[in-house]
Amino acid sequence: MATKRMTPGFSDQVMGLVKSLRTDAPDCVASGVVDMSTGMLLSYETVDNHPPEVLDLLAGATLDLFQGRTVVMIEDVFKERRGSAGDNHFFQEILVNSENLTHLFVRMNEQQDVVAVVVCRKSVNVGMLFAQVRRVIREYSL
């Protein structure tokens, strides 16, 4: 059975999502989409030039945040205790504040192994960031 990533137009959808996130998220300096099943950064836009190795590390860091060994163990415990048998993950959104930036990682609704990443200035209104990113993601069914 073919996955959505194999269908025509998936690449265009990913690029459209990245562009929409970049333009619609407040104080956004970069956006991207990571495929956690392959560990690849599928597309990105940024206002600055970053070394390629930093961009490569973004995909790995995203994978660790959502599917690191300990995170998977926590999810398995919750599933067992709650009697949940589904494949959906408990951790859907992760907000990380660094010294100067705010990073928001959000799983896509349809494909849980695809994560949108938005990086904003630390002065961003976090409520508006979540609202805008959620609105944009609802428009894309990756």
Write the layout of secondary structure elements.
Elements: H1 10-24, E1 28-35, E2 40-46, H2 52-67, H3 69-82, E3 93-97, E4 101-107, E5 114-121, H4 126-139
Antiparallel strand pairs: 1-2, 1-5, 3-4, 4-5
Helix pairs in contact: 1-4, 2-3
Structure description:
The protein has 142 residues and is of the alpha+beta class. The protein has one domain: Beta-Lactamase. The chain contains 4 helices and 5 strands, in the order αββααβββα. The protein has a 5-stranded antiparallel beta sheet, with helices on both faces. A hairpin with a 3-residue loop joins β3 and β4. α1 packs antiparallel against α4 and α2 runs parallel beside α3. The longest helix has 16 residues. The mean pLDDT is 89.
What is the radius of gyration? 15 Å
CATH level-four homologous superfamily name: Dynein light chain 2a, cytoplasmic
Strand order of the largest sheet: 2-1-5-4-3
State the CATH topology: Beta-Lactamase
Which percent bin holds the helix content?
Answer: 40-55%
- The total strand number stands at 5
Question: What is the name of the CATH architecture?
Answer: 2-Layer Sandwich
Strand content: 15-25%
Global outline: globular
Q: Which parts are unreliable, with pLDDT below 50 for 5 consecutive residues or more?
A: none
Helix/strand order: HEEHHEEEH
Largest sheet descriptor? 5 strands, antiparallel
From the N-terminal CA to the C-terminal CA, the straight-line distance is 16 Å
Average pLDDT metric: 89
